[in-house]
Design goal:
This protein has a single domain, classed as MetI-like (MetI-like fold). The protein is mainly α and 215 residues long. It is flat, with a radius of gyration of 21 Å.
């Protein structure tokens, strides 16, 4: 295979990897916040369900979750899986990472002193205004390092999409390497993951500095 053809195919894989990464963040970050609310709910049933969900997502391999999310509709309802492969990947990644983000959110929210809520109440803020205008900005600042770590892990975890035979970066690199009996495609893939992670870390660091309102 020519070098140009190899890079063209790897480029398609790079796009697919980036697509999985950004769509997962798009859905898992807000979902994680909702799950964290359930985890801290006063209602014992809601709190228990949220805790069980987080336990399952964190206690089982993401690879297994990908398989369950993809094949469950067929085995349970006899559904046609055509066209479901990519949505299943995004769904599995999103519900998995939402569990981790939920615990990060919870830790950040619970680290805010009660005095913040009391001061907001004195100023006439309702619960929604208190959370989104006062609490959440402080929480985001505190949890940003943890969010960054999970985000970097997500870049590498996108390679697990190979379980459902999805042609992302790592899968294509392995196919080319096996066909050409060359390690070069895998080295290019490794370089891509490193550059992608470097860019993500840099962007998150810039965001963290922008949120450094204590200075």
């Amino acid at each position: 295979m020519s070098t140009g053809t190899m890079f063209m195919q790897l480029g398609k894989g790079m796009f697919s990897t980036a697509e999985i990464f950004f769509l997962t963040l798009l859905f898992s970050l807000p979902l994680g916040l909702l799950v964290s609310f359930g985890r801290m709910a006063r209602n014992g049933i809601i709190r228990g369900i949220s805790k069980f969900y987080i336990s399952i997502m964190r206690g089982t391999p993401l690879m297994l979750q990908l398989l369950v999310v993809y094949f469950a509709p067929y085995y349970l309802f006899g559904a046609n899986l055509r066209g479901y492969r990519f949505p299943a990947i995004i769904l599995a990644f999103s519900i998995n990472y939402a569990a981790y983000f939920a615990e990060i959110y919870r830790g950040g929210i619970e680290s805010i002193s009660v005095g913040q809520y009391e001061a907001a109440k004195v100023l006439g803020y309702n619960k929604g205004q208190t959370f989104f205008r006062i609490i959440l900005p402080q929480v985001l600042k505190r949890i940003m390092p943890s969010i960054t770590n999970e985000t970097i892990t997500l870049v590498k975890d996108t390679s697990l999409a190979f379980v459902l035979a999805h042609a992302e970066m790592f899968t294509i690199a392995k196919q080319i390497a096996a066909k050409d009996t060359s390690v070069m495609p895998l080295m290019v893939a490794g370089l891509f993951y490193y550059i992608f992670n470097f860019a993500v870390a840099f962007a998150m660091e810039r965001i963290e500095k922008a949120m450094d309102y204590y200075r």
